What does this fold into?
Amino acid sequence: MSSSYDKFQKRRLISSYFSVVLSVFLVLFLLGILGLFVLNSKKLSDDFKEEIAMTVFFRNEANDSILRAFGTELKEAKYVKSSVFVNKDDAAKQHTDIIGEDFMTFLGTNPLQNSYDIHLKADYIVSDSIRKIESRLRANEMVSDIVYDKQLVNLVNDNIRKVSLWILISSAFLTLVAVLLINSSMRLSIYSHRFIIKTMQMVGATKSFIRKPFIWRSIKLGILGSVLAVIALIATLLYLDNNYPNLGILEEKLMIGLVLLGVVGVGILITWLSTYFATQRFLNLRTDDLY
It folds into this structure.
């Protein structure tokens, strides 16, 4: 009879531990996915913004030395990610390939101009910054015109702000849910030991002595759940990188490492705090309230 009861208690204890580890794993995995999504959403938005090109056209009077000097200036500019010189003859060939006809045979001359296609860094793809950059480039007397999609710049920035706001709200909400779920699992685990806690207290054990084994056990369960979440996150990252290499998901290794460390840290912190307050609650209860 005693043996069967001991087996039942052991199965019950293992089931309790398993449910705690599983809840910690699932919650931290979702939090990690959210963190990685926020990290890559910033990168994806920056990549999209940096695809917007600003084209600077030069007058026909601009000679090779002026064009080379302008190219050197762009290489030294902190706001330029990349720039490409487009010769007017090459531009004419591209136009001919696109429209399927040699328009110069009708005009008798090449009306196109030498130009630079400039891709700005993402931090400078905002209306105010672009206007300042445009004004600075127009100060060059050899520049005849500067063209870029102003509406697209405004649209991209407006949408990114809206999406970022909703991501922030969602992150805060899911973090709160994660804390509540882990806290609930830890409190249920401690609840099953409430009589042991009260018995130890009645025989003279101090509160810190009683809390210590429960907190240490919870931290170990939290570490186990966190490690499983990290393994699952790494597997997800490798899968996405193998199937969608263009996303460049593994490029930000330092930030990914910080997210994974954050997952482990959050798992340990929440389980420790939840166990501390749960044991404190039962330590402060009267014996009659345990039932």
Q: What stands out?
A: The first strand starts at residue 53 and ends at 58. The longest helix spans residues 2-50.
